[in-house]
Design goal:
By secondary structure, the protein is of the alpha/beta class. It is 41% helix and 15% strand. Among the domains are: 188 residues, TIM Barrel (Alpha-Beta Barrel), CATH 3.20.20; 87 residues, Methane Monooxygenase Hydroxylase, Chain G, domain 1 (Up-down Bundle), CATH 1.20.58.930; 45 residues, Helix Hairpins (Orthogonal Bundle). β19 and β20 form a beta hairpin. The structure holds pyridoxal-5'-phosphate.
Amino acid sequence: MQDYGIRIWGEDDFFIDGDKVKVNYKSSPALFDIVTNIRNQDIKGPLLLRFPHLIKKQIKLIYKTFENACKEIDYHGKFQAVFPLKVNQFADFIQPIIEAGKPFQYGLEAGSKAELLIAMSHIYDQAPVTVNGFKDKEMIELTFLSAKMGQNITVTIEGINELESIIEVAKERGTPIPKIGLRIKLHSMGIGIWAKSGGINSKFGLTSTELLEAINLLKQHKLLEYFTMIHFHIGSQMTQISNLKKALREAGNIYADLRKLGASHLNSINLGGGLGVEYTQNESYPELTYSLREYASETTFVLQNIAKKKNVQEPNIIIESGRFIASSHAVLVAPVFELFSEEYTQNALIHKETNPPLIDELYELLKFITKKNAQEYLHDSIDHLNSLLTLFDLGYIDLIDRSNAEILTHIIIKKAILLLKDEPIKELIQIQDKIQEKYLVNFSIFQSIPDFWGLAQRFPIMPLAKLDTKPTRSASLWDITCDSDGEIAFDSKNPLFLHSVNLDEEDYFLGFFKVGAYQEVLGMNHNLFTHPTTATIEINEQGYKIQTITPSDTLIKILDSLNYNCTKIEDNLFHKIDNSPFISKTQRAQIKHEIALFLQENGYLKTVN
Ligand SMILES: *Cc1c(COP(=O)(O)O)cnc(C)c1O
């Protein structure tokens, strides 16, 4: 049976049991049952399911792994972590992360004014807040207010001019002053003077010359005691540990030398994010070549060595992993709306007294196809169809012939696949590259997995049920936007096989896994498909509870977000109804009522079931 690579990407969060995929926690509910339950409350369209226990799991995992790594080599620095808000700022997500982080004093990282306000209003107790990104004086004032509120806040300086702003605000406001971090520009990240991102045009961080200047400025203004942290970030979804090791060696040496230069309160290195997530469904093409355990032990090992060699105290380690914490908690479930070859059934054939010879041959192929000749007949039928389509273009056959040819070929393909279904997957892939079934899926790629569109990032995809049956159709997925980029084409490197289903009789849901990081807020309203309905699912020993449901925006709200005057839209419609010569007076109220109801629906399609 096909397991859709769940052993590779699933991290034991989900497992297949019988015909369904289940959540591997407490009462282990099936995703299919949760989705059916929610849809029975008249919620149709795609659904984003959030599982807070998976957020908790990742937080715990990161702390425990680093704790073990420290213990193993008797590392003296403290380990701390913060969640970078840019990865997911939705309130439904932030609430559970704050809850789950309490026992660890898990902190928050903000990169903009809006994120800083989320952090300041949600941070718990003395859990750390770090602030990265470009800041104006106003934003720096906000960090001073946070310090005044007694919060454990560190402002990371991205450039000398920001440091000058801090000095200015410190003069105006006096204490308390937030802790200061300096972002360092690492040469080991390939940022050289000649690179576009290097030199004075670089986006983030201080060069070694600027670092020395910063230390002098801090000394001059008696602020050196607030300088506690250096920071770097090597980019997201790091695939190899060697990049981190290089960066750590550089940062570790900078740390040690800055301490020697008198930065006596400098006690922490912030590694930023980058800890990767395994998305692949194909064993032969893994995305990652290291584990969290390796990440943690390499970090402590490299930093301890440098500290020993240069005789300084071992730095505290702060990490800002976002993807690793957030990605697994959310699963997008989208119903299949249509299968494109479904309409090609035998009874759609139109009988003709005489057929073109190639059509007669298609009838013969269909009649005599067996397991032994299936592959050959399948290829013949595709060749015949191509020839017939050319004949049609030249005017030699008519539209009825053409339709019959399409139907016959599709039936032959289906029959061949059925006969060959026990062949090894490798051979099926070869056969099927050309004859994929198109699955129209009720969701928007642009809204729900924008990184597939923008970066060709793959996400694990699998059906939620029928998992005890071998899937026989090579699938390309089409979303419901009117954009030809809204397609996940069949990829023989990452082949997706799905089931033949009769959608009139049953629902067929696809799960898109690990979409909890970046996708939600990067998602765009292309074609005005907005954020899907979201449900938070608490699983307990007995079953599960649907904690919250946040519905997808209504059509009227979508128009409102584009600056339409919503009352005016309704008024306009009603006015047109009142003045239409095609609508009688008695029909008006009913039609207005229907339109008003429509405006309160969301924009996704409604499947029949
Ligand atoms: C984006 C970002 C992160 C998060 O990176 P992940 O790869 O999601 O862990 C952490 N720190 C900084 C400064 C960032 O810009």
